[in-house]
Amino acid sequence: MALNTQKPAIDPSYLEKLQDYYADHKVIPSYSVLATLWGISAKSWVSECVKRFEEAGFLDWTPDKQLKPGARFFERRLADSTVQAGLPNPAISDGYDLITIDDYLVRLPSKTSLVRVKGDSMVEAGIHEGDLLVVEQQPNANVGEIVVAIVDNEFTVKYLEREKGGFVLKPANKAYPVIRPKGRLEIFGVMAGLVRRTR
Hints:
The protein is an alpha+beta fold.
């Protein structure tokens, strides 16, 4: 008689529960906590689940043998369907790819910074106070790009424009004046994306 060597499937909710736990506590818990989190009594099955998550790239180990998030731990579902901002469309399908926010927003990690927005000078460009700008650090930019510049030793985010006298920084709010630097205009970087929580 042939033995069934196929391993039982892991409940997909195990990874979701683990990701939620990490979001709250910023650590991967011990095996005993994992057992409680997953509702498992057999330590061998906890160990098997961890091993499979490790093989799949969701978990990894630190040099001192502590569990840590793996390369795929922060992947999020990206629905196959797009969402229309105009007329209603059919409901989003069940299909999806996996993507990390870094994969989507960060092209050059070593040259990328997050800058928090203060003020409302760029609201007409869809940039609001409290938003996090994804900024690719570079000393130059093209006219029309949204840049983070240093003016009077302070960061400001504006459109880079050109006038007869040189480059200027133009706000996206008519209540604010165009900034015409008297000295050298220093570009910190160019806006590559934006992150905002809505609730």
